[in-house]
Design a protein that fits this description.
It is built from 4 helices and 6 strands; from the N terminus they run ααββαββββα. The protein is an alpha+beta fold. The protein has a single domain, classed as Nuclear Transport Factor 2, Chain: A (Roll).
């Protein structure tokens, strides 16, 4: 991992996520990680999550609430310690049976080859509507 660029680190995160290797995904994060996802109480996995415990909680909430049909990163832009990923997903909401599709942006900040902050931008209205009965 020492020889990877910041962009390659993020590419590895996505690749390992697609493979379901969450232990490897988590290895790329700093223990003090902060992950921010917008949205109100209608979206179970919205909020600010801190540390490994927070990441575990966020991923567990996501797994309990949705089934990913597609999760595609389409473009990666890098500038020093920031890597921004543009993508989209199509998701089935378990509780309602509804499906939503949304474009998203994930902005990663890295320090010393570890991810220290993630800010997600997504269509919270579309997602919240899919959680409404």
């Amino acid at each position: 991992m020492d020889n990877l660029t910041n962009q390659q680190i993020i590419e590895q995160v996505y690749w390992n996520f697609a493979e379901g290797n969450m232990q490897k995904v988590l290895s790329f994060f700093d223990p003090g990680i902060t992950w921010v996802r917008p949205g109100g109480p209608a979206i179970p996995f919205a909020g600010t999550f801190r540390g490994y415990e927070g990441l575990g909680k966020m991923f567990a909430l996501q797994t309990a609430a949705i089934k990913l049909k597609t999760f595609l990163h389409q473009k990666i832009c890098t500038n020093d310690d920031t890597v921004v990923v543009l993508g989209n997903d199509t998701v089935n909401v378990i509780s309602t049976g509804k499906t939503y599709s949304s474009d998203w942006v994930q902005a990663f900040t890295l320090k010393d080859r570890k991810i220290i902050h993630v800010q997600v931008y997504m269509d919270t209205k579309t997602i919240a509507d899919a959680f409404s009965p």
